[in-house]
Amino acid sequence: MGRGTVPVKTSLRLLGVTLAGSTALGLASQPLLAQSGTVRPFTQAEKNQGAQAHAQIMQEFGGEYAGPATAYVRTVGQGVAVQSGLSNNPNDFTVTLLNSPVNNAFALPGGFIYSTRQLLALMNNEAELAGVLAHELGHTAARHSQQRQRRATRNSILGVLATVLGGAIGDNGGLLGSLGGLLQNNAMQAAQMATLGFSRSQETQADDLGIRYISAAGYDPAALATVLASLDAQNSLDLRLSGQDAARNIPAWASTHPDPASRVRRATERARAMNVVNGRTNRDQFLNAVNNLLYADDPRQGVVEGRQFLHPDLRLGFSVPEGFRISNGTTAVSIGSANGQAQFTMGSFSGDLDAYVRQAFQTVVGQNQSNVQLGAINRTTVNGIPAAYATARATTQQGQVDLIIFAYAFDSSKAYHFAALAPAGRLSVFDAMFASVRRLTPAEASAIRPRRVSVVTVRRGDTVQSLASRMAYQDSQLERFLVLNALSSSAVLTPGQRVKIVTYAGN
Fold this sequence. Notes:
One of its GO terms (cellular component) is membrane. GO terms for molecular function: metal ion binding; metalloendopeptidase activity. Its cofactor is Zn(2+). This protein is α+β, with helices and mostly antiparallel strands. The protein folds into 3 domains: 24-290, no CATH class; 301-446, Mog1/PsbP, alpha/beta/alpha sandwich (Protein Transport Mog1p, Chain A, 3-Layer(aba) Sandwich); 450-504, Membrane-bound Lytic Murein Transglycosylase D, Chain A. 36% of the residues lie in helices and 20% in strands. It contains 17 helices and 17 strands. Helix 3 packs across helix 5 (126-141). The longest helix is centred in the middle third of the chain and has 19 residues, at 223-241. It starts with 32 loop residues before the first helix and ends with a strand.
């Protein structure tokens, strides 16, 4: 969550079905242009639509990353983009590396393609980067987002809420978004459509097209399968670290797709069928580009440490319940599990906490205020901070749900709030979280440091255990190191080999 005061109306996607904050690369297709070989170049209308949504994407995902890797990603992306048939001019494609700590990649109509820096850090060679971007280009070439938009606009807002109850609340990857803002305008809608899940056939098609594109660009076509395997490993690790059962919690990017193992097998088979000889991976060039890349949270937007969210600039912190996943975004912190979903964000504050609660509620519910009524506003104090909260109950096709707005006045001009959703009668799952909000001490704030990717060369005597011990984490160092480098637990390192570790900046 960023430093500046964000108007309450920009508390994004509460009760929505976005993938932001989860391992969200949905990568595979319909039997369409993959078979015909013909692609319709994108139109000026599609370029305009993408350009309108681009600003929203940049706001929601931390803007463009400021570092050498940005130009590298742009060059690789434009190089593979011209293989799609959407345009022969590399400059027609806007490829952006986002300053976001979530594993995500997506595309907008008109040649706008995105990867987060966190997903870049998970990759291990240039071919994998090309594969991820090519997959997203496959969605663009097949006009998958437009198909999703047409389906979404046929749904009412409460219909979307019902979908959330059946999906996001029961899906750890699903995060909350602004119910009121879901259909606000074309730019907002296009931005949200970019990060919603695709169908099985759409993902399969995008996989096939992505493999075709990177093969045509001279890359090893097996790279898409290996990055899919890394995504699956990272998601499983994230679930274990948050106390959840990976076997029972399907990530948002995979909830409507073939299971990860099947997708990896299928992508591997398709790559073999391409019969590419000596497809390049450019591993060294890639490692040079990601060396010193910011990893995980940017302290300027707050950091997630285990079950805690800590913001050194805003001097605030809170803890989430056991078994909940927590993800930090530019405008909000998202919290979720099978038992409920929540967001923590800030808003414009005039000093009237009751008015703040009502405004936050109106933002969440939007045009459905006649169907969802806010209850009485209650006042309390949390760790010396004035607070107020109110609840509402909504009836959907999936049953009743409860919504709560819990707000905190940090001073006369600064307030923050949770907006949380749970099945009716079960909001108490968040009680400990609401009670955990506190001010950080100066010492706590100054102790928060950024993490970065460091590429190191294996020396004689180094092992996976010894290098993992250098990871800037207090828990699961070995598991984190293995996933980051796509290594197995039995891996043996050789002198001269280059691997990634995560260190604190300045170390």
